Amino acid sequence: MVSLLKLAKVTEEGVKFLSPYDGTPMLLTPEHSISLQNTIGSDIIMQLDDVIVTTSPDAVRMKAAMERQNLFCIIQGGLDLEMRKICCEEMVKRDTPGIAIGGLSGGEAKVEFCKVVDACTGWLPDYKPRYVMGVGYPEDLVVCVALGADMFDCVWPTRTAVSSDALYSLVRRRLVLRSSL
Length: 181
Prior knowledge:
Order of helices and strands: EEEHEHEHEHEHEHEE
Strand order of the largest sheet: 4-5-6-7-8
Distance between the termini: 38 Å
């Protein structure tokens, strides 16, 4: 939800926002978030993390989902390494199947991004998968692996495809796509 915080309000109940389709007020609770991820059959699911109020979301609300799927908790704290360290300590106690490093939206300087990923992977156990959320560029994937991350999601392929770009033979080219109808 980090990328949508300007459009949303985070409360203990969940995330309140306006529908992008018709402007209707909506509430996404942690339970509904898990339900949606279960419905689409995700192998790895993420808790609806609270990036404002606490570094340690409610364990009771997460427990049922953890027993059914690979629920990863999410490390938050912005660029504040002390806050990140506290969050890492709290999330490790949850003993989830893996741990995600969240709260990096792509707007921070690369040096700061690397400091956060390096610090968090250093505080997290080696025996758990470490997942970096919202990686923005291909070179960031390589950097994250070098810093100790095991997995990530990346918006770059989608951003690239939307502008009709494609990658092949390590060259970026613009494609002209025409409908065959």
